[in-house]
């Protein structure tokens, strides 16, 4: 489990989190799901060959 991403965290910030904290390649085809502490908001990061 990761700490909450800041609300303004965009594609590139979430991509950096997956690389640095999870040690995963964000363009690997995996689906990365982030949620806030209150579990009221989710952000999904997925790379489809041409971009996020």
Helix content: 10-25%
> Based on CA inertia axes, which overall geometry fits?
globular
Radius of gyration: 11 Å
Largest sheet: 2 strands, antiparallel
Domain tally: 1
**What strand order characterises the main sheet?**
1-2
Quantity of strands, as a count:
2
SS-based structural class? alpha+beta
Distance between the termini: 22 Å
Q: Assess the beta-strand content as a share of residues.
A: 15-25%
Order of helices and strands: HEE
Helical run tally: 1
**Averaging pLDDT over every residue, what do you get?**
84
Low-confidence stretches: none
Key attributes of the depicted protein:
single chain; alpha+beta; two-stranded antiparallel sheet; 19% strand
Walkthrough of the structure:
This protein is of the alpha+beta class. It has one domain (1-52). The chain contains 1 helix and 2 strands. The chain has one helix spanning 11-20, and strands at residues 31-35, 42-46. Strands 1-2 form a two-stranded antiparallel sheet. The termini are far apart.
Please give the structural blueprint.
Layout: H1 11-20, E1 31-35, E2 42-46
Antiparallel strand pairs: 1-2
Summarize the structure.
With 52 residues, this protein is α+β, with helices and mostly antiparallel strands.
């Amino acid at each position: 489990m990761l700490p909450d991403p800041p609300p303004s965290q965009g594609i590139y910030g979430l991509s950096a989190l997956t690389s640095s904290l999870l040690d995963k390649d964000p363009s690997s085809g995996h689906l990365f799901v982030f949620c806030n502490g209150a579990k009221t908001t989710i952000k999904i990061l997925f790379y489809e060959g041409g971009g996020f």
